[in-house]
Design brief:
The complex is a heterodimer of chains A (about 400) and B (about 120). Chain A has about 400 residues and is mainly alpha-helical. Helices cover about 70% and strands about 0% of the residues of chain A. Chain A has 3 domains: about 1-95; about 100-160 and about 170-290, no CATH class; about 305-400, Serine Threonine Protein Phosphatase 5, Tetratricopeptide repeat (Alpha Horseshoe), CATH 1.25.40. The longest helix of chain A is centred in the first third of the chain and has 24 residues, at about 5-25. Residues about 90-100 of chain A have low confidence and may be disordered. Chain B has a single domain (about 1-110), classed as 2-Layer Sandwich (Alpha-Beta Plaits). In chain B, strand 3 and strand 4 form a beta hairpin. Classes of the chains: A mainly alpha (about 400), B alpha+beta (about 120).
């Protein structure tokens, strides 16, 4: 027997985004849509405790939210057009899933005319239902200033008339890539905080995984959307073992693999198997396959480095960025030998990839060139602003003896 | 929905580019807009050294020789287009040859339907 509390929690996870998206579609009013959804969820708990959980919670919540919106528009007296829109919608609204509305929502939130922070904060608020306080915490700003940012973003969408729609065919590939890019960047920001005391900002990572799940569900035919979700799951599964109790970085090969989140890894692998049926590999699927190589190695020394190096070769063709070249050099160093990796690192400049020094130090250590390794570790420590990374590198330096 | 397009670039770079014929497709751009009936205004500006800036402080009219913001990048042309939404305005802006060396800023106009919240 589901309690009203459980049912509401479930409905919040599954239906918040749909309800907000539907109401924006009906009124064109982002503030009102959010407020009405919030009101519906607030009214649900006492009502469900009193009358029992309705047979179709989403329908109950959607109706409650719509009624609230209608009330508000009636009282405001300026909402005649919107009221008509809502009325039409109520009359013809099919009871089934309305994935389309949420798709419109995510494409609008991730419109390239909005800045990155505006895109993610709006998507987290409207699509995932994170509270303003939660988003503010994740981005380390005050609740008031986050609320202001959200108002500014919604205002731009409406006044500059960013269309609330799934982009037409000629724009769709670029705009889909933009949506995936927003989610990927958000995860990266949480996974390797560029500065500050914490290496890992778990709330940002968790938010990115939720967004990736929503996007993968909304774009079932897009193998890169599936690949991105798989990639984030495979990384997130290792999150708990990546940092020690003191907040220090634990490198992949020293992580306690028994503590990796197996169900999450299985979910990621299953997504990759399904996506494997479709077309050539894109950058997210390639990265997910690399993450899968790590996730499926029972011990670090069993890692299939030649396979990983091969995947990086493919990735480099699609994304010839300094970071990809750095990771390829590391993989080659592990697959063939440190000297081969070092040769590839020499082609990179530290100005492009600050992590190059840390990677060089590691390969020099593996090659037994300790004096050079120590020098490289010292340079790497100077180059990073992330305090957890600095602590890790100092530890490495000390262990060279 | 009406949008102002402010076309700007480094004035010297733009002058050189025009002299070299790099803006030859400008004619196609403007012809296309005229044919579609979306162009409300289009004007090119004289270079910024011909500008005069006016301020009134304590009732006194103060004149400055030059544009209100000094800099190499200056607005060289204005257009007002009337289209369905920002995506359409972006597509039009992206077709202007100046975007290859400078940029186009798109601003929704305050009057008309742009000021209301209904989409």
């Amino acid at each position: 027997m589901t309690t009203p509390e459980e049912a509401l929690e479930q409905a919040f996870r599954d239906d918040w985004g749909r309800i907000v998206a539907t109401l924006i579609g009906g009124t064109g009013d982002w503030d009102l849509a959010e407020e009405s959804a919030q009101e519906a969820f607030a009214r649900a708990l006492p009502a469900w405790r009193r009358d029992g959980v309705p047979e179709r919670p989403r329908a109950w919540l959607t109706t409650a939210a719509r009624n609230h919106a209608v009330d508000r528009l009636r009282r405001a007296k300026v909402g005649a057009d919107k009221l008509r829109l809502l009325a039409v919608q109520t009359a013809s609204d099919p009871p089934g899933p309305i994935a389309d509305d949420r798709l419109r929502l995510i494409f609008t939130c991730c419109h390239p005319a909005l800045g990155f922070e505006a895109q993610v904060t709006l998507a987290l608020r409207t699509l995932c239902g994170l509270s303003v306080a939660e988003i503010a915490r994740a981005f380390a700003v005050s609740e008031a200033s986050m609320a202001k940012r959200l108002v500014r973003t919604r205002k731009k969408i409406v006044t500059a008339r960013i269309p609330y729609r799934v982009p037409p065919a000629d724009l769709l590939p670029a705009r889909t890539a933009a949506v995936l890019g927003v989610v990927y960047l958000l995860f990266n920001e949480g996974y390797a905080a560029t500065s500050g005391p914490d290496l890992l900002r778990t709330d940002l990572c968790a938010a990115a995984v939720r967004l990736a799940a929503a996007v993968a569900e909304l774009l079932p035919g897009d193998p890169e959307a599936q690949g991105l979700y798989a990639l984030l799951l495979l990384h997130q599964a290792r999150a708990a073992t990546r940092v020690d109790a003191a907040g220090g970085l634990i490198p992949l090969e020293e992580q306690d693999r028994t503590r990796w989140n197996r169900p999450m890894i299985e979910d990621g692998l299953a997504l990759l198997r399904r996506a494997a049926l479709a077309g050539p590999l894109g950058p997210y699927r390639l990265q997910a396959l690399i993450a899968a190589c790590h996730a499926t190695a029972p011990i670090a020394s069993a890692t299939d480095w030649p396979q990983i190096a091969g995947l990086y070769d493919d990735l480099m063709v699609l994304v010839p960025s300094p970071t990809v070249r750095l990771n390829r050099a590391i993989a080659v160093g592990m697959a063939i030998g440190p000297e081969a990796g070092l040769a590839l690192l020499d082609e990179l400049s530290t100005a492009d990839v600050p992590l190059r020094e840390a990677a060089r130090a590691d390969l020099l250590r593996r090659a037994g060139r300790m004096a050079e390794a120590a020098e490289a570790y010292r340079r790497a420590i100077d180059l990073t602003r992330n305090q957890a990374e600095q602590r890790y590198l100092r530890g490495r330096l000390a262990s060279l003896g | 929905m009406r949008y102002l397009l402010m076309i700007s670039a480094d004035e010297q770079v733009a002058a050189d580019a025009i002299a070299e014929g790099a803006f030859a497709d400008f004619t196609d751009w403007i012809e296309d807009l005229r044919r579609r009936g979306v162009l409300r205004v289009h004007e090119g500006l004289r270079p910024s050294p011909t500008a005069t800036t006016v301020r009134v402080r304590d009732g006194e009219v103060l004149l400055t020789d030059g544009p209100f913001i000094e800099g190499r990048e200056q607005v060289g042309g204005l257009a007002i287009v009337e289209v369905a939404d920002l995506d359409e305005a972006i597509a039009i802006a992206a077709g202007h040859p100046a975007t290859r060396i400078g940029q186009v800023e798109i601003r929704p106009l305050r009057d008309g339907t742009g000021g209301t919240r209904a989409a």
